[in-house]
Design a protein that fits this description.
- It is built from 1 helix and 9 strands.
- It is mostly beta strands and 100 residues long.
- A hairpin with a 2-residue loop joins strand 1 and strand 2.
Length: 100
């Protein structure tokens, strides 16, 4: 068993979003994504991705559709779905990706 504290991993930068890897094994990855207000990523396409908002609020886009989400909300993107994220407040997101 491997236990990690998310609290110890959270880190922000005025230079841009910070992605801190937590796990990478057999096609499955997880990371903590930390963004300051106004920072964004995407649009991009990738693997099936689940995002759990740990703290803050952001705007999540998929295929041109925009939705607001905050603490406790789970967002799931399908494989090859074009998506983006923009932080409205300091935003902390747990990301989980899978190749299948």
């Amino acid at each position: 068993m491997d236990i990690k504290s998310l609290k110890d991993k959270i880190s922000f930068s005025p230079e841009g979003p910070v992605k801190i890897p937590l796990y990478d094994h057999a096609g499955k990855k997880s990371a903590v994504l930390c963004m300051e207000p106004g920072q964004s990523i995407g649009p991009q396409k990738g693997l099936e991705t689940a995002l759990l908002v740990i703290d803050g609020e952001g705007s999540f886009t998929a295929n041109g559709e925009n939705r607001e989400a905050g603490k406790g909300v789970l967002i799931v993107y399908a494989p090859n779905e074009e998506y983006g994220i923009a932080a409205k407040t300091r935003l902390v997101v747990l990301t989980v990706t899978s190749e299948g």
